[in-house]
Amino acid sequence: MNESEFRAESQRLARGDVVDVEITAVAHGGVCVGRYEGQVLFVRHCLPGERVRARVTDAPKHGRFVRADTESVLRSSADRVIAPCAYAGICGGCDWQHVSLEGQRALKATVIREGLVRLGGEPPERWSDLQVEAMPNDDDGLGWRTRMRFAVTRAGRAGLRRYRSHEIVPVDSCLLSTSQIRDLQVLRRDWAGTREILAVSPSASPAIAVPDPQPGRARIQEMVDDHVWRLDATAFWQVHPEAPRTFIAAVRDMLQPQAGDHVVDLYSGAGLFAGALADDVGPTGRIDAVESDPIAVRAAKRSLHGQPQVSLHESAVHRWLRSTMVTSCDLVVLDPPRTGAGVRTMTSILSLRPRAVAYVACDPVALGRDVAAAKQAGWRLAHVRAFDAFPMTHHVECIALLLPNSAAEGDESH
Ligand SMILES: C[S@@+](CC[C@H](N)C(=O)[O-])C[C@H]1O[C@@H](n2cnc3c(N)ncnc32)[C@H](O)[C@@H]1O
Fold first, then answer.
1. Which domains are delineated in the chain?
2. Residue 56 DSSP label
3. Does residue 362 have an active-site annotation?
4. What is the DSSP letter of 184?
5. Catalytic residue among 85, 91, 362, 398
6. What is the model's pLDDT at position 157?
7. Nearest partner of 85 among 393, 397, 394, 395, judged by Cα
8. I need a labelling partner for 278 at 20 to 30 A (CA). Which of 169, 196, 207, 228 fits?
């Protein structure tokens, strides 16, 4: 080790160090960026424009950045508020309790814009006005979580996990959960002998708490418009109570489905979009819904049997695309998990030559990467809407419209 390497090494931040840092920007994942002596810190519980005293919580030896948490605020942002929850900063469930709802949405809009620009190759000025929309009837960002997974301590108390840790924080209440889940009193009961509790408050059946959830233990019902879904409690369903109706409306608006259309619904879960779009395409249309989780496919079978225009395929999307006899379609909706679809899957989807694709994205970074893949294949990003479907957390839902470059410019809706 030469002298300058030795100096750099001895100045490297280590776990437990406390430093004062200027916070310059927001990053993906509920953290903000600061710099100290040339080192990058990802700091929690602060805001861009603030100066904070932060304690290093994680300093990997060869990592390019260290993680830290705010100990005290030396200069605060106008967006800072008193967190409504007593466990904010202790429990790892929320990231932005210390930020006004408007401020949270502005942070999320920045993260989405950066995903589109840095990864999606979009011009920055094009998305400078992008807004994250509040969900209908949401005025405080609380009471929206219809699915909660509580961990149980050895002593039988239910709680939530600390940030990036297995440690369980026993809590008296979670303000994000719906009032129906709070009424289940999961956090006050003795759960000795149980490891985990799934609490669900569905829209069309009573709330339930399922100890050590396994498929087949409990059935619930969800209702959207006139459709009823009969689901296993463990099956995927949109978490915010307003999400199903809001996302269906946004997808419809972008795709403008017509009677007789052939729609491909990828990563279809229990068939939320398939069921709604089946009404639009009518009996002369066709929907192919593709989903790999057998529990979700079973729920779709139980719920969509009255719509014979829907065909359900239990398969991984990339495998189905490789083996299907379907070589073209009119419209595609895809709603992949956080990892996104990936270049090969995007290329296969677009080779079906649909009129339009609605991409429902729960991760703006994955969306940016998949937009880049679509552009490589001769498509363009025509429109993006973003929804604050997970207030107080860093999560956000985007719905993006992709159109072939050959579609008329300005044809932003179909
Ligand atoms: C974000 S959820 C969307 C479900 C549905 N669109 C909805 O809104 O209820 C993503 C779904 O993709 C499924 N999935 C994950 N990876 C998959 C893959 N490679 N192929 C097919 N489905 C997959 C998951 O089981 C899950 O149901």
1. 3-75 (2.40.50.140), 147-222 (no CATH), 238-404 (3.40.50.150)
2. E
3. yes
4. T
5. 362
6. 95
7. 393
8. 207
In DSSP notation, 64-127 reads SEEEEEEEEEEE--TTB---SSTTBTTBTT-S-TTB-HHHHHHHHHHHHHHIIIIIT---GGGG
pLDDT tens digit sequence for 46-70: 999 999 999 999 999 888 899 999 9
What is residue 240's three-state secondary structure? Answer: coil
Site of tokens 């050959």: 406
Encoding tokens for residue 339? 């990892």
Percentage of residues of the chain with pLDDT beyond 70: 96
Q: Is 274 exposed, middle or buried (0-12, 13-18, 19+ CB in 10 A)?
A: buried
Give the model's pLDDT for residue 170: 86
- Is the CA virtual torsion 202, 206, 212, 216 positive or negative? negative
pLDDT value for 11: 75
The residue whose CB lies within 8 Å of the most ligand 1 atoms, and thus the one to mutate among 236, 277, 321, is: 236
Identity at 359, one-letter amino acid code: Y
Report residues whose beta carbon is within 6 angstroms of any ligand 1 atom: 236-238, 267-270, 272-273, 290-293, 296, 316-317, 335, 337, 362
Say if residues 112 and 130 touch (Cβ distance below 8 Å). Answer: yes
Whole-angstrom Cα distance, residue 275 to residue 129?
33
- 333-357: per-residue pLDDT in tens? 999 999 999 999 999 999 999 999 9
Strand 286-291 with 219-224, pairing: unpaired
- C-beta atoms surrounding 338 within 10 Å: 10
Provide the pLDDT confidence category of residue 407 given band limits of 50, 70 and 90.
confident
> What is the band of 3 on the pLDDT scale with cuts at 50, 70, 90?
low
Kindly report whether the global pTM for this prediction surpasses the value 0.90.
Answer: yes
Other CB atoms within a 10 A radius of the CB of residue 47 amount to 22
Closest ligand 1 atom number to CA of residue 243: 8
In this structure, the residue with its CA closest to atom 11 of ligand 1 is 267
